Amino acid sequence: MNPDKYRVKPGGSVNLSDWDTNDDGDLSKDEGRTLTDELQIGLADWQERLNAEGRQSLLIVLQARDAGGKDGTVKHVMGAFNPNGVQVSNFKVPTEEERGHDFLWRVHQRVPRAGQIGVFNRSHYEDVLVTRVHSMIDDSTADRRLSHIRHFESLLTDGGTRILKFYLHVSKDEQKARLQDRLDDPAKHWKFNPADLTERAKWDEYTSAYQDALTTSTESAPWYVIPADRKWFRNLLISQIILDTLQGMHPQFPKATFDPKEIEIE
């Protein structure tokens, strides 16, 4: 499995039809789950190193259509991490206070501090997706915001924060099946929002908006288009990319400021 296959190259346009939502990496479901379990051990180890070192941070951005699997990813992938070193943020409709500032004001406050992993379950990209699809902003404003986002992410990387951005790419048929499952199962009724159907009706508009948002992929803040029809493969691929990134950051346990051999515990 080559994660670079799913990485959006910097520059140029993006066409989501180039990525298969049902990709399985030529693996079986059992193989994928076994590999994911193995990766979870590595994720826990490298997160501990990151936290102990306290010099770098990692920001993970999750974006998807409704029922695309953001919550499932947090549960099944980020569940490997020690909760003390992770902060999950969900950006919903801005409050009156937040609307009184620039659109990135509320986001900057949730960026992970050194030694931490931050997870954005929906993110600053909502301000160039929902707002654009519902004509709250025009194309010119969207373009300016995308430029601001590039500079904002560059500021974060300059300060020691690595950024991974995942678009969970789910098909229209699979989304329909998942929404129907929420209607059929009383235990999942709380997950269903009739407004999701309004958003589903704007499928093409969201496709266009996402394709523009994905052009913000850079070497230091890449986007990955994650096939999301198969939940197990989604979890496997994201786990592998995060582990590769943490290993590339190479955080180290700090050296002791004392000689352990000279300490005697009575």
Automatic annotation (TrEMBL):
Residues 27-252 form the Polyphosphate kinase-2-related domain. It comes from the Bacteria. The keyword Kinase applies. One of its GO terms (molecular function) is kinase activity. Pfam families: PPK2 (PF03976). Residues 1-31 are annotated as: Disordered. InterPro entries: P-loop_NTPase, Polyphosphate_phosphotransfera, PPK2-rel_1, PPK2-related. Keywords: Kinase, Transferase. PANTHER family: POLYPHOSPHATE:AMP PHOSPHOTRANSFERASE, POLYPHOSPHATE:AMP PHOSPHOTRANSFERASE-RELATED. This is Polyphosphate kinase 2 family protein. It comes from Deinococcus aquaticus.
